[in-house]
């Protein structure tokens, strides 16, 4: 998720307005952007229960996180949660072997959240359609994703990310015509990847990470370790909430809690 960028390609605001006049209507709760019949069958359980995703993410972190989330002066941002692929031939409500989601890895040289894995996204530019236009623009700028190949399906509610001061709206989308992607700016994005959902859902690749400060626990949450990437924090929590609410989860060991720093040090790209 980035915080800069000139006005670029944008999609349609779900409220039918654009620019500053749209605030804060697009962020008020989950919202479907297409006819339900247009949603791929395996994404229907997710799109139909986005209120559950919002609730799970909002509860994670306990009272301190809720207090931080209530602080004023938060900035608006959006991320593109871009799925592709077909349903499982034996169960149309589950992702098939080719189902994927797009993730990016921030450059290690960045000041904030360096090296972290995220969905493509960033802060709202004045005058653009928000949140859909923001998410599509950032995905084009970060990963060279053509917005014309993407169908935005739905919005979750606005989700607070206290460490960065953002209120983020995830734009759940389907990639109708997948194409090659790349890190557009190496100074900002180290890597972009299309990660198989079957790999993310593999219990062997799921655990929790814990970060401690001065001997006390500062953070603990769900994580995924795939393709040399550690997906944790806001992105890991959102991804875990989506897979759980959609009914895609395979039972995994929630008691497998690993030290964050040690886990990062053990990754192949480090």
Automatic annotation (TrEMBL):
Pfam families: NUDIX
Record's protein name: Nudix hydrolase domain-containing protein
Domain spans labelled Nudix hydrolase: 73-217
Single GO MF descriptor: metal ion binding
CDD domains linked to this entry: NUDIX_CoAse_Nudt7
Signal sequence, renumbered to the chain: none
Higher taxonomy: Bacteria, Bacillati, Actinomycetota, Actinomycetes, Mycobacteriales
Cofactor list: Mn(2+); Mg(2+)
The entry's keywords: Hydrolase, Magnesium, Manganese, Metal-binding
Location of region: Disordered: 1-33
């Amino acid at each position: 998720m980035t915080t800069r960028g000139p006005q670029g390609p944008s999609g349609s605001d779900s409220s039918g307005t654009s620019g500053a006049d749209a605030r804060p209507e697009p962020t008020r709760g989950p919202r479907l952007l297409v006819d339900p019949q247009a949603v791929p069958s395996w994404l229907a359980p997710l799109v139909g229960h986005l209120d559950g995703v919002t609730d799970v993410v909002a509860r994670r972190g306990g009272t301190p996180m809720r207090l931080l989330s209530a602080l004023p002066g938060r900035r608006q941002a959006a991320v593109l949660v871009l799925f592709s692929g077909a349903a499982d031939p034996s169960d149309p409500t589950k992702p098939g072997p080719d189902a994927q989601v797009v993730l990016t890895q921030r450059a290690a040289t960045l000041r904030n959240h360096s090296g972290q894995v995220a969905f493509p996204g960033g802060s709202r530019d004045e005058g653009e359609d928000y949140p859909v236009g923001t998410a599509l623009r950032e995905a084009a700028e970060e990963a060279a994703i053509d917005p014309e190949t993407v169908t935005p399906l739905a919005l979750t509610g606005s989700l607070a990310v206290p460490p960065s001061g953002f209120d983020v709206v995830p734009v759940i989308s389907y990639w109708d015509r997948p194409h090659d992607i790349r890190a557009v700016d190496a100074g900002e994005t180290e890597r972009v990847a299309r990660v198989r959902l079957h790999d993310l859902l593999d219990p062997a690749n799921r655990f929790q990470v814990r970060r401690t400060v001065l001997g006390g626990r500062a953070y603990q949450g769900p994580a995924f370790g795939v393709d040399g990437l550690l997906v944790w924090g806001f992105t890991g929590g959102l991804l875990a909430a989506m897979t759980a609410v959609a009914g895609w989860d395979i039972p995994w060991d929630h008691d497998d809690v690993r030290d964050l720093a040690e886990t990062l040090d053990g990754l192949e790209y480090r």
